[in-house]
Design a protein that fits this description.
The protein is α/β, with parallel strands linked by helices and 389 residues long. It is built from 13 helices and eleven strands. The protein has two domains: 250 residues, Type I PLP-dependent aspartate aminotransferase-like (Major domain) (Aspartate Aminotransferase, domain 2), CATH 3.40.640.10; 131 residues, Aspartate Aminotransferase, domain 1 (Alpha-Beta Complex), CATH 3.90.1150. 46% of the residues are buried. The model has no long low-confidence stretch (mean pLDDT 96). The structure holds pyridoxal-5'-phosphate (PLP).
Length: 389
């Protein structure tokens, strides 16, 4: 792109961002640069510390192309890349917290995010407290003088509570705390946390950005105020990604807008279908008007993703086994964001601040690009097996 990417709308950034054919011998895509050693022709060049790529860990044009695209998508000052979503989360948190600090984490956070905070930051002398994802502006009552970071994930990727991010960000700003948001579910197409007052935004690019279930990757983008510390922490930790993985993410991003639009429509159709099925007690999808957080969702999001959960009437494990062991199309596996549909039984979610209140069997679904009729038939049969029909 010859113009600044901020001038364009998101679909244009996705198709044109991070590539410059004039610099790459005319190729449409930025090639895969594999390099550890970078050679300097002269002593002057060797001692020119302003050169961007002086060693493999400084990055290369393949990595820059992904960083630049995500930065433009999120309206950030800059982006760093990580070899997984969890590594992006740990890098983001370590860029903000110091020994003696206090972190507030949403009770709906992705389980490994909770584990990093408790098991790792705990050892480093950082206190971690969990808060009700629906706390909104009342989070002000929890912010202590040493609270440096509030972690949000909206919606929670198992349980789909939507957070009142503007209210949380206002309370944080008033007390000098930073807010980081895991934005993996909605992607910047449908949710822009930095524009709602957050300081850092994290993606498990393993999911929607990659989009094909074949790469592990993470990103952290930050405001101008937070980016220098993020970049420094990333460098000090030695976090680095391979150019082949970066290329797969760059490729995935090119079709993100059309994939998300298709996921949204198809996922809503399956969610509405499941609402009508016997044995389904609840459908946890924030775009449905009856979802308890629908008003906040409508205010802050411009669309929805491929992932939601349902709650089934409680039944013995043998019924669940009969249901999931003979699925025809839905795969059973962790992760999501690919082109294929997945179904995952979830044990009772870990909760610290507020007990989980939905009795029954939680099942998370990702809706891919198979025929909707075939998917509905697979689900209807699965539910009939569950109920012993
Ligand atoms: C998968 C996921 C992560 C972690 O990403 P990995 O690439 O698996 O490390 C973080 N947050 C959310 C919401 C996720 O779904």
């Amino acid at each position: 792109m010859t113009d600044s990417p901020d001038k364009f709308e998101i679909e244009t950034i996705l198709t044109h961002g991070g590539r410059d054919p004039q610099q790459t011998r005319g190729t449409v895509n930025t090639p895969v640069y594999r390099a550890s050693t970078v050679l300097f022709p002269t002593l002057d060049a060797l001692q020119d510390y302003a050169l961007p790529f002086r060693y493999g860990r400084d990055g290369n044009p393949t990595l820059t192309s992904v960083e630049d695209t995500i930065t433009a998508l999120e309206g950030a000052a800059g982006t760093v890349l990580a070899p997984s979503g969890v590594s992006a989360i740990s890098t983001a948190m370590l860029s903000v917290v110091n020994a003696g600090d206090d972190v507030l984490m949403t009770d709906s956070a992705y389980e490994p995010t909770r584990n990093f905070a408790r098991d790792f930051l705990g050892r480093m002398g950082v206190a971690v407290r969990f808060y009700d994802p629906r706390i909104g502006g009342r989070i002000a009552d929890l912010i202590a003088p040493n609270t440096s970071l509030i972690m949000a994930e909206s919606p929670g990727s198992l349980t789909f509570e939507v957070q009142d991010l503007p209210a949380i960000a206002r309370a944080a700003q008033a007390r000098g705390a930073r807010v980081a948001v895991d934005n993996t579910w909605a992607t910047p197409l449908y949710y822009r946390p930095l524009s709602l007052g957050a300081d850092l935004v994290i993606h498990a690019a393993t999911k929607m950005f990659g989009g094909h279930s074949d790469v592990m990757f993470g990103t952290v983008s930050a405001t101008a105020e937070c980016f220098p510390a993020l970049k420094r922490t990333h460098r000090l930790l030695g976090v680095h990604v391979g150019p082949d993985d970066a290329f797969l993410v760059a490729r995935g991003l090119r079709t993100l807008a059309i994939r998300m639009a298709a996921h949204e429509e198809r996922t809503l159709e399956i969610a509405r279908f499941l609402k009508t099925q016997p044995g389904v007690l609840n459908v946890l999808h924030p775009a449905l008007p009856e979802h308890p957080d629908h008003a906040i969702f409508k205010r802050d999001f411009s669309g929805s993703g491929s992932l939601f959960s349902i709650v089934l009437e409680p039944r013995p494990r043998a019924d669940l086994q009969r249901m999931v062991d003979t699925l025809r199309l839905f795969g059973m596996g962790y992760s999501w964001g690919g082109f294929e549909s997945l179904l995952l039984p979830i044990p009772t979610p870990t909760r610290t601040a507020v007990p989980w209140a939905e009795p029954g069997q939680l099942i998370r679904l990702q809706i891919g690009f198979e025929s909707l009729n075939d998917l509905k038939a697979d689900l209807a049969d699965a539910l009939a097996r569950y109920r012993g029909a």
